[in-house]
Amino acid sequence: MNYRTLFVASAGLALSASLSGCGLNSVPTQEENAKAKWADVENYYQRRADLIPNLVATVKAAGAQEKSILVEVTQARAGANAVKLTADQLNDPAKVAAYEKAQSNVTLSLQRLQEAYPELKSQANYATLMDQLEGTENRISTARHDYNGAVQSYNTTIRTFPDAIGAKVFYGAKPLVPFKATTPGAEAAPAVNFGNGN
């Protein structure tokens, strides 16, 4: 074997080793992981949207005085379903913020509904639906957390050496936008008042 063949083989190995460290596989893998986590978030938002009509139907049977809050919940749900966000739009902070604001309106409406109907907790159907909604809200929270973790991993990968080279050269990668609280005062726990003066 001559030196030229040995040099070409060594150069080929060095080039493939350097390219493998430039994010050729890790960048798209992490981007797809973040998009999959986003799909989980949307899945749980859809679950919530599907449960709300059942909750509204159950609560409507309890009396006409609930009408204003039921209308608010229904309108919030319709507004949330009208705002769409695709995986390709995850790097647009304005679109992510608009989507999260629409979803937050649903959450606020559901909180008002829970506060307005303590007497309905004795109804088994209502309690079951509220448990399902609580479970869904927990799933949404977990899915958001998982999405933010995937976004952090992806954003770190596309910004650190050597993966940053492949991210920019081969993919033109841009950072994804993580979820942030959009409701004013969301960082503070809400006060719970059962109306008993304590």
Describe this structure in words.
This protein is 70% helix and 0% strand. The chain has 198 residues and is mostly helical. Helix 3 runs antiparallel to helix 4 (93-116).
Key features of this structure:
198 residues; mainly alpha; de novo design (two linked rop proteins); elongated
The number of domains is 1
Average pLDDT metric: 77
Per CATH, the architecture is: Up-down Bundle
CATH superfamily: LemA-like domain
Distance between the termini: 90 Å
Compile the SSE list and pairings:
Blueprint: H1 3-20, H2 26-60, H3 67-82, H4 93-116, H5 124-159, H6 163-171
Helix pairs in contact: 2-3, 2-5, 3-4
What's a quick, concise take on this entry?
The chain has a single domain (25-171), classed as Up-down Bundle (de novo design (two linked rop proteins)), CATH 1.20.1440.20.
